[in-house]
């Protein structure tokens, strides 16, 4: 497939969450900064400085905003437990993937000592999976389903990266994003925290609790 046919929104300021959503839905009109700012306000209407975005108004939206935006379109974001093997995923029932990764904060050519997070969309287009990172010059081909699973394994080996599965409400309800709900395989990596996975770098600790579906059969939640 020619990359010209793929919508790939490029990075502006700290609007990677907006770009990730628009790249996911393959449309520049899927979401706007105004809509995401409105979601921020609706989540914390009584805060003078909104905790869900940059106080400078440049973006830097957190997972709460992404989840709320997806819900408005009939989708859910499911946090994927990195202790699990990605081969347990039913790729046919997953609409897209959003990675959260650490990134440097730069002003011009100067890198500042600030920790920032970056949102990246991965989705299938005409049978091929693409990395639609807004910081890339063009969409990056990942390949077929096997290539995607290997790619996700490599990415999730980094403890600072998190993966969210984007699925329809129906798929979330039926848990049909799993190959086999009764045989949810786990990884054996000792580098991953076996007790708790914290999203403190993705969410603000002073936020109102949000519900994020965890990818295990016990239906626990992260707040």
What is the CATH fold-level name?
A: Cathepsin B, Chain A
**CATH class call:** Alpha Beta
CATH architecture call: Alpha-Beta Complex
For the report, how would you describe the main beta sheet? Answer: 8 strands, mixed
Number of domains: 1
What's the total count of β strands?
8
| Residue fraction in strands | 15-25%
Share of helix, binned:
10-25%
**What class do helices, strands and sheet pairing give?**
alpha+beta
What is the count of DSSP helices, taking H or I runs of 4+ residues? Answer: 5
Low-confidence stretches: 105-114, 185-223
- SSE succession: HHHEEEEEHEHEE
Using only CA atoms, what is the Rg? 17 Å
Taking the alpha carbons of the first and last residues, their distance comes to 40 Å
Shape verdict: globular
Could you explain how this protein is built, in words?
InterPro entries: JOSD1/2, Josephin. Keywords: Hydrolase, Protease, Ubl conjugation pathway. The protein has 223 residues and is an alpha+beta fold. The protein has a single domain, classed as Cathepsin B, Chain A, CATH 3.90.70. 22% of the residues lie in helices and 24% in strands. The protein has five helices and eight strands. Strands 5-4-3-2-6-1-7-8 form an eight-stranded mixed β-sheet, with helices on both faces. Strand 3 and strand 4 (128-131) form a beta hairpin. Helix 2 (33-43) crosses helix 3 (63-71). The radius of gyration is 17 Å and the shape is globular.
């Amino acid at each position: 497939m020619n990359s010209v046919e793929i919508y790939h929104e490029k990075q502006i300021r700290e609007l990677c969450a907006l770009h990730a959503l628009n790249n996911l839905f393959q449309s520049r009109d899927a979401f706007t900064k105004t809509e995401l700012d409105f979601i921020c306000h609706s989540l914390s209407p009584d805060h003078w400085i909104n905790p869900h975005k940059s106080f400078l108004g440049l973006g830097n939206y957190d997972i709460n905003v992404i989840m709320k935006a997806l819900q408005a379109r009939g989708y859910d974001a499911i946090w994927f437990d990195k202790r699990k093997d990605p081969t347990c995923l039913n790729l046919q029932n997953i609409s897209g993937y959003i990675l959260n990764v650490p990134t440097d904060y730069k002003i011009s050519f100067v890198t500042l000592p600030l920790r920032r997070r970056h949102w990246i969309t991965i989705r299938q287009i005409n049978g091929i999976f693409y990395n639609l990172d807004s910081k890339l010059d063009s969409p990056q081909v990942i390949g077929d389903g096997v290539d995607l699973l290997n790619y996700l394994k490599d990415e999730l080996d980094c403890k600072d990266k998190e993966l969210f599965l984007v699925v329809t409400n129906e798929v979330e309800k039926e848990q049909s994003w799993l190959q086999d709900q009764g045989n949810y395989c786990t990884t054996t990596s000792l580098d991953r925290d076996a007790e708790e996975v914290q999203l403190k770098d993705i969410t603000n600790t002073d936020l109102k609790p949000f519900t994020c579906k965890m990818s295990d059969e016990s239906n626990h939640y992260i707040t």
